[in-house]
Design brief:
70 residues, mainly beta, 47% strand, flat
């Protein structure tokens, strides 16, 4: 999972930092390059945001996950 931070200016001029985590799916040469990334390093990933639904093995209700596929 990768962390995406953005700063949003709220009403009244107060800035708020919002953090979103996304799973990233990489194939081929991109996957090999990604293995060289270090924790905390800033990277830019361009891809398609896809959702998929699955039912966990424990039988609980179906879940939806969002992934960036590059």
């Amino acid at each position: 999972a990768k962390r995406f931070r953005r700063i949003q200016t709220m009403t009244g001029g107060v800035e708020q930092v919002r953090t979103n985590w996304h799973s990233v799916v990489l194939y081929g040469a991109l996957a090999e390059v990604a293995e060289t990334f270090e924790k905390g390093e800033n990277v830019r990933i361009v891809g398609t945001l896809l959702s998929r639904q699955f039912t966990p093995k424990d039988g609980s209700k179906p879940r939806t996950v969002w992934e960036v596929v590059a």
